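Subject line: Sequence and fold of a protein, written as structure tokens
Area: Proteins and the way their chains fold up in space.
Start of record: The labelled sequence and token lines come straight after this line.
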Amino acid sequence: MNRYLTSVIRLDFVPYEAIMTESGLKHVLTHANDLQVLHLDSCWPSVTEENLFVIAQNCSKLSVFTASRCKWVTDAALEAVAIKCPKLTEVDLSSCFKVSDKGLMALSNHCSNLKELHVSSCYGVTDKSIVCLLQQCLSLTVLDVSWCFSVTDQSMKLLVSPECALNFLRITDCNRVTEGVVSQLRTKGIIVNNFF
């Protein structure tokens, strides 16, 4: 089994979220050194902060990482993953309530090839980290900051810049982003709120 795991490049545990244990996931992650795609959405019993540090230590080739609705994803763990997995291009941390500006800024600073980011309902995410993200990750094409209530026009105005590659933006219930800025984004050709 361990020999098999060393050659695995894609794992999707979403269908098994109810039966995946913390120790089972740790065993898999310890041996899956070639892993490039990892889906752990809703696997909150097994996605502990410790297992996120295991991902950081063992999965440096990771390019896609999804862990939405995992309550133990912390800024410290996200920072470790960002530092050790600089090839990340797609990340979904939606409803990871412990993720804030600190974790998102680490992701922005270490994963400059990020193309897709979902942080909806990460209530600690503000303009501060979104500005950093937009300045560091110039290849970003998809961004979801829905229900990030501290995101405002200040960061969203940066999307109008010609350097910005964003195509799709989801800002559901970001009430501090004005219709004027949304109109500017749509004029630029960015699809706002209706891509999923």
